[in-house]
Amino acid sequence: MVLRIPITASLLLMGLLAAGLAQSPSPALAPRGFWGLPENMTVVEGATVRLQCGVHAPGSAVQWAKDGLLLGPNPRIPGFPRYRLEGDPAKGEFHLRIDACDLSDDAEYECQVGRSETGPELVSPRVLLSVLGKGEAPQGLAVWFPALPPQLPSPKPQPLLLRPGVHAAISSETQSSALHTPPGAGLSPVSLTVPPKALELAPEAGSTVTWVAGQEYEVSCVSGEAKPAPDIIFLQSGQTVSDISTTVNEGSQEKLFTTEAIARVTPQSSDNGQLLVCEGSSPALDVPIQVSLTMNILCPPVIEWPGLDEGHVRAGQNLELLCMARGGNPPATLQWLKNGEPMSTAWGTEHAQAVARSLLVMVVRPEDHGVRLSCEAHNSVSTATQERGVTLQVTFPPSAITILGSPSQSENKNMTLSCITKSSRPRVLLRWWLGWRQLQPTEETVMDVRREPGYGLKPPLCQGLHGGHISMSNLTFLARREDNGLMLTCEAFSEAFTKETFKKSLTLNVKYPAEKLWIEGPPKGQQLRAGTRVRLVCLAIGGNPDPSLTWYKDSRTVSEPRQPQEPRRVQLGSLEKSGSTFSRELVLVAGPSDNLAKFTCKAGQLSATTQLVVQFPPTNLTILANASELRPGDSLNLTCVSISSNPPVNLSWDKEGERLEDVAARPRTAPFKGSSAARTVLLRLSSRDHGHRVTCRAHSARLRETVSASYRVSVLYPPEFLGEQVLVVTAVEQGEALLPVSVSANPAPEAFNWTFRGYRLSPAGGPRHRILSGGALQLWNVTRADGGLYQLHCQNSEGKAEALVRLDVHYAPTIRTLQDPTEVNVGGSVDIVCTVDANPVLPEMFSWERLGEEEEDQSLDDAEQVSKGSTGRLRFRHATLDQAGAYQCVVDNGVAPPARGLVRLVVRFAPQVEHPTPLTKVAAAGDSTSSATLHCRARGVPNIVFTWTKNGVPLDLQDPRYTEHTYHQGVVHSSLLTIANVSAAQDYALFTCTATNSLGLDHTNIQLVSISRPDPPLGLKVVSVSPYSVGLEWKPGFDGGLPQKFQVRYEALGTPGFFYVDVLPPTATTFTLMGLQPSTRYRIWLLASNALGESGLDSKGSQTIITTPGLDQPSGEPDDQPPTEQPEGPSKLPLLPVLFAVGGLLLLSNASCVGGYLWQRRLRRLARGTSEKTEAGSEEDRVRNEYEESQWTGDRDTRSSTVSTTDVEPYYHSMKDFSRQLPPTLEEESYVRGFTGLDVENMAFAGHLYDEVERLYPPPGAWGPLYDEVQMVRRFSCPTGNLYGSNSSFACQGPGDPHWSEVKYEDPRRIYDQVARDLAPMEPDSLPFELRGHLV
After folding, report:
1. How far is CA 1162 from CA 1008, 1091, 1094, 1158, 1182, in A?
2. Mean pLDDT, all residues of the chain
3. Cα dihedral 1121, 1124, 1130, 1134 sign
């Protein structure tokens, strides 16, 4: 009994067990031979395997052979990187290890031992190594192995080694193995299998194939690669297919095979929807693998007929026949046929039962008798159409009954009628009824025919319709008046139609005449006005048929007009009946033809007549002419004829309202029994008579009516241009122009020909013109070249005419000449001439504009505007400089756009050098290291040439120390003379700048001086005043070559003491003085100061007197007040300012007694002989530099003056960049930090500042006490406390104020701080030579 174990056992465990079995110890000194042999093994692809080889052959070479290929004794086995020998050769271990096995390793192996001295060669039995691909491990692998010896220990996990006689189950997923040794197991060969991966079916597996039942088809099934080749069978609807051919092919790898099986299948209808299965089996598979496809078997249908068998139906019956077909695939297609012709193709299908149904619904008609109805069923695999049918037998009554003969007859005469039926099946019988009385027929006939005959009494000539029967009955009887209106009926009946009755009836009409006839209308002889509505009624009594009552007018039948658009002058009423009385109305509008006409009404042989009398105007007023073609000068004879009127009329003539003389003509016969009239008029014609109307009027006095007729005169004459013909046409350039034509001619002109400058314009038109139907010439995109005379030629059959039309093209003005610039000498006269090309040229089309930013600059009141023709002039007499500038000539003649031309008027004038007041000064240090720039500016046209002289001697500009730069901008010209290395000995002089052009010359003097104190400000004035403040404005004076600042000094007249306020920012020229009292008179001074001192107070332009208004007075502009005026009356000093000043002096004296004593002594000496109030020079010198602030910046090479081509007042030149470098002197001392409140940080002195240094220097230390005392002296007092109030930034602060100590002064250059203001004024000789301001 063999035990089969699942292959899920581990390969590793099998290897361990097999290796243990193979390793049995060899006894010592064993004979030459194998003590361990290789065995058949099966491994999974990618695993490692070891084939055992143990020998007792010392000194012999051992190697392995693979399929007969010797691998060599080298343990590394060259050429096989995955192969190597393992074990201890000393122990005889030569095991073959193979890593990462693949199918190429599936082979036979043997271990070979070479020949040696101890014995011959040895060869082990061949063993088979089977390699299973991953995913291809068999579901079961049976191998027999012998039992394990009990004494062997359990080996470590090794590749699987299989020994015959052991049953192993191998799993490729877990790579584990389990060995089972059944009892009594014997040896058997190893069975190695690889299952197939899949089966491939053609047609494709899983698909549905469509086959026809009974036909043979081939199906192929191919297995995947396997070992051994699998077996394949086919199952059709669960039954094995016997007709199979199988082929085994080699696989892509060695030892693998594929199987291809082809089955021949003949499907039947029962196989529809069933599976055709391909099943592959292999020893490696526990369960066979299958693939399948679904069979869709096509087969013909079978008809089931549950319908009629005999086909007896009745006409009008609703017949329903059902046709059903079963078993068809695809489902059957059904259709009904009538005598072989399709009549219905609608059917339904039930796929589940494979049933197709078609229901035929029809209404049976007589013509369906003998018709065969059949149902056909077929599908796509039907070889023949299946058909079932029935023939109809139709019973039908006659479709109609006809009575032949007239139902109308005069009384007491015989009437003959015939009754005939349509075909019927079966036949019918006929009988007659008059009212309720049955009449006996004179003859009865039954015709058995195939086709229905005509309505005549003749027998049919051909076979006829539906196979039915026709019945006929004839009747003759006497017509009586009492039978009139009775119903005569023919009735058809049969046993087959017991429930139906078929009848045909008609009404008898027995004729007899009327009894009486008369007319009702207007009385006889009454006169009716034409247009009067007249009503005539004809009446009759009795008669059958009803009397027709026909109206006649003069023996002609009266009828209404046939055309609906004609006026309905006659309305003929219909016959009306009231009882036995009949009437018919005739309404007409009386007309001329009704005058004395006879109106007659007839009814059979009876008639009645009446006559009308109608008054009417002329029925037709006709004008007759004696000629058809008339020309100027011909005579025209016109005759007016009134055809007929009642009563007679009077005729008259007029032409366009003008009465004409006429004569009577011979009268004619008048229709309608009226009167006629005729009159003639004679006219002599001209062309002006063409188109005039000549009117004839016929007037009836009795009717108070006038009838008119007119004759339009047509005179043939050549073209004549009318008085309204336009001779001049105006157009705008680039616009359109229409040259109209006003011409009269008869006949109309045949052609209009236009000629321009000798060239004829094409009548067909051109790119820019066309000739309209009336002859007018239309132009577009007109240009000025199109202007001129256009000649028009008109012609007809009577002659021709010509006219000239001028086209005046207006175009926008274009300036042709405008001289720019136009020049004139000042005081001279000149015209700016503007010439244009324009049309039209208007007297007022020229205008001039002056271009300027200000409105006053645009006035032209001082110029004269003159225009003549296409030239406009702007005339200037006595030209002035103010008139120079840009002017614009504007020309507007009404055609947009206006033309504009710009021209500049240049007024030439002699140079005008700007002469500042006072004399221009330039300050510079005369130390031969500084430079100075002299700026000379002048105005003049043409350009100016500048020359310079020094002290009257022409300046040599070739000297490298002198550099001149000239600038020109419009009428302003500038010359900048730069003097390098200014020397006091050579350059402190009077420089003269002379500006010259062709009209003259002018000059100015510029004095080059050393730096000095500033000049007093100029033009101090009050610009606003309020009770507590005053607004001031001034012009700065010469700054002495150094930055200057301003200080306001003021006093209240009558109050002792002065007040000082600094102007901030220092360069401002306006200032508002605050803290004043209302209704108080003040004297105000303005001081200028720089680093060298202050300006004087003696200048009238730097002081003024002002009185502040009271609180009840309005603030505003101050009244004009004299700049200097002494207050009247004694001075009254307020107590508080005096006490404040005394207290301040005491504090200062306490600071330095000795310094104060020396300082006061010197001040008293300098102020001797001066008045404190009127001559404040010394006081000014003492306080002039109190708020001085130095702002010198820059380096020593910077220019001393700024050049600007736009500055109009370069009068004063600063020396901001002046920097004097002198060696230190003995008077140099260090000063106490915190001295006054000066802004020392902005001072840029490179050396000593020579502030009033005397020629004789005092001994060392002499200036120290003096300057120590000066820092405590303040020449201002605050008698009222804070000068501006607590919130003012200009609060009055004393030496004890804590804010003074906050400023830290750095003095690395040991500058003499500004103490010269406390010194007495010095003579010019007290300054060093380089700083003296005198001319050298």
Report:
1. 34, 22, 19, 6, 11
2. 76
3. positive
Q: 755, 791 in Cβ contact below 8 A? A: yes
Distance of CA 62 to the CA centre of its chain: 94
Cα distance between residue 215 and residue 267, in whole Å:
7
Sort residue 1186 into left (φ over 0), alpha (ψ -120 to 50) or beta: alpha
Residue with the two structure tokens 């194998």: 34
Whole-number Å distance between alpha carbons of 1188 and 337:
137
Instruction: Find out whether 551 and 538 touch, Cβ atoms under 8 Å.
Output: yes
CB 1300 within 8 A of CB 1234: yes
User: Each residue of 1189-1213: pLDDT tens digit?
Assistant: 323 333 333 333 333 333 333 333 3
Q: Which two tokens stand for residue 641?
A: 């004829």
Question: What is the number of helices (H) and of strands (E) in the chain?
Answer: 6, 96
CB atoms near residue 224 (< 10 Å): 19
- Sign of the C-alpha dihedral computed for residues 802, 808, 809 and 815 taken in this order: positive
Question: What integer pLDDT is reported at residue 194 of this predicted model?
Answer: 67
Residue predicted with more confidence, 853 or 1236: 853
Q: Distance (Å, rounded) from C-alpha 834 to C-alpha 847?
A: 10
**pLDDT tens, position by position, 466-481:** 778 888 999 998 888 8
Tokens of residue 1197, six digits: 């090479």
Its sign, for the CA torsion 299, 304, 309, 311, is: negative
> 1194 versus 674: which is more confidently predicted?
674
Q: Is the full-model pTM beyond 0.85?
A: no
Nearest partner of 122 among 80, 64, 66, 49, judged by Cα: 64
- The angle at the Cα of 637, spanning 632 to 639, to the nearest 5 degrees, equals 145
- 938, 995 contact by CB (below 8 A): yes
Residue 330 has a CB neighbour count (10 Å cut-off) of: 17
d(CA 1304, CA 1289): 20
More confident residue, 195 or 404: 404
Q: What is the DSSP letter of 1028?
A: T
Which two tokens mark 1081? 């008179």
CA–CA distance, 411 with 484 (Å, rounded to integer): 9
Beta-carbon neighbour count of residue 355 at 10 Å? Answer: 18
